[in-house]
Backbone:
């Protein structure tokens, strides 16, 4: 997916000497939007201490609850909104992978870092306390809380040590993407078709036809590989494209509804409210306010 320059994060997340920053935020639910749609060149570990948050990371949606962590890869569009809670407290470690200190050893970097940066090695993005190794990552993130917003020089060694430990656990349980996955390859034409034709009126038969599979077989494989149905994926992709247009253009909401395949304004408003917990107009206004506030800080 093309990453609009206008959605690149403008917040300071460190420098060449100290390529990281730990942000802490306590937000009250005056607005539903927590993070406006954006991307950055660094990776991010987001640890939710209080509240419930809906995250959109690339092509995936996650409902994150207090005590859970999400990993956001570099160069990945993401946004978040608060749901069913009055307050939201979190810390976020935003870091360049050079913080791991493996760049000087090309063999180690090629093994442990480069595949992640290239996307051929997928780390678990939603870390819930369901397995011991995930509980350990959550505990490691909790240990960073006293260092939030402190000068990087005062905590560099500690943060690097914790990140290396977290990285080891993520790497050990990572999914290799460069290995051929025949089931994913069968549905890839459908994903590409959705991303190219999302503005058109599509049926599940139209989408399945791109793969040469029966609708039932296609639906089974798509659910298995993408953890959602093709129709839900289409809807989520349309929502994401509408978010981009709301933040980067002056188009009317009605025009955006038509351009992203919703057909009419009422259908767009209803779908957007359900998935983003606010109206398109409110999303546009809150995104602008959040971006301006983060830039000023």
Residues:
């Amino acid at each position: 997916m093309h990453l609009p320059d206008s959605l690149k994060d403008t917040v300071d997340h460190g420098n060449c000497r100290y390529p990281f920053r730990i942000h802490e935020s306590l937000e009250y639910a005056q607005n539903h939007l927590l993070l406006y749609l954006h991307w950055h060149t660094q990776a991010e570990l987001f640890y939710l201490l209080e509240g419930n948050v809906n995250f959109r990371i690339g092509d995936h949606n996650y409902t994150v609850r207090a005590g859970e962590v999400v990993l956001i890869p570099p160069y990945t569009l993401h946004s978040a909104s608060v749901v069913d809670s009055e307050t939201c407290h979190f810390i976020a470690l935003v870091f360049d992978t050079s913080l791991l200190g493996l760049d000087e050893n090309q063999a180690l970097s090629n093994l442990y870092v480069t595949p992640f940066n290239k996307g051929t090695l997928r780390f678990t993005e939603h870390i819930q306390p369901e397995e011991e190794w995930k509980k350990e990552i959550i505990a490691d993130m909790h240990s960073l809380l006293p260092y939030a917003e402190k000068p990087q020089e005062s905590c560099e060694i500690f943060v690097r040590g914790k990140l290396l430990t977290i990285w080891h656990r993520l790497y050990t349980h990572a999914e290799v993407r460069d290995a051929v996955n025949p089931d994913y390859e069968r549905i890839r034409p459908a994903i590409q078709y959705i991303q190219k034709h999302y503005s058109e009126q599509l049926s599940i038969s139209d989408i399945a036809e791109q793969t040469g599979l029966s609708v039932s077989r296609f639906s089974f494989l798509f659910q298995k590989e993408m953890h959602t149905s093709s129709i839900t994926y289409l809807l989520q992709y349309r929502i994401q494209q509408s978010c981009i247009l709301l933040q980067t253009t002056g188009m009317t909401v009605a025009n955006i509804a038509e351009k992203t395949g919703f057909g009419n304004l009422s259908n767009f408003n209803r779908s957007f409210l359900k998935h983003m917990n606010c109206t398109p107009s409110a999303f546009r206004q809150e995104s602008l306010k959040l971006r301006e506030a983060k830039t000023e800080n």
